[in-house]
Amino acid sequence: SQVLRDAGVATTTFVAYGELGRSGLGRDFAQVVDVPARPGQSFALSADVVEHMVAHLATPHDGPRFLFAHWMDPHFPYDAAAKKGPAYQRFLAEVELADTSFGVLWDALERQGLLARRVLIVTADHGEAFGHHGTPYHTVTVYEELIRVPLFIYAPGVRPRRIDAPVTLMDLGPTLLDLFSLPTPAAFLGESLVPFARGEVPKLTRPIAAERPRTRALVLGQRK
Q1: What's this model's pTM, rounded to 2 decimal places?
Q2: Which residues face 121 on adjacent strands?
Q3: How does pLDDT run across 140-173, given as a tens digit for each residue?
Q4: Whole-angstrom Cα distance, residue 208 to residue 48?
Q5: Burial tier of 140 (Cβ tally within 10 Å: 0-12, 13-18, 19+)
Q6: What beta strand segments (E) does the chain contain?
Q7: CB 141 within 8 A of CB 111
């Protein structure tokens, strides 16, 4: 966000959870939009966040811009869609909430004629364990159920394909900078994934790292 902002890109972040905003999600953005939580909720839901995003996209703007939003549903305590029932089923119901919100965003981009000029990236910061390896939630391990997360990239004119090569969230910074035709600072560890969008099969040489409190993992090829 700092590199983009310093390069003249209009950067905006939408914060659904104030504590996360204060700890870094609002850092170095030119504009921070705090989305308030509904009564009884500990964080704003994606439906409320996307409402602010759609309104922001409707405002006239010249030049490139970067929008970042962190949706907290689905997330513990899994009570946004249902208050009763198995935790995993309530979690899936919250996944559906997020999916619906993404549809609202997609429709707004299409309605405003922006879909052909936008790159959309959807990913997650962690998974949930639901009892695997004796872990009820997240944060405490680096097993696959927690660190293997989805990553979808939509770009106009790019033929859909599935990439089997392991990638890392650390690749997102270089990828975003590459999309804005900006160089990646030498201190960044990740590598741009844009060559995949061009149909190439690049050889990525950086390691993949994951960490939780007191636990770390490194992925090199097929070894973890």
Answers
A1: 0.91
A2: 153
A3: 899 999 999 999 999 998 999 999 888 999 999 9
A4: 34
A5: middle
A6: 10-15, 31-34, 65-70, 120-123, 151-154, 208-212, 215-219
A7: no
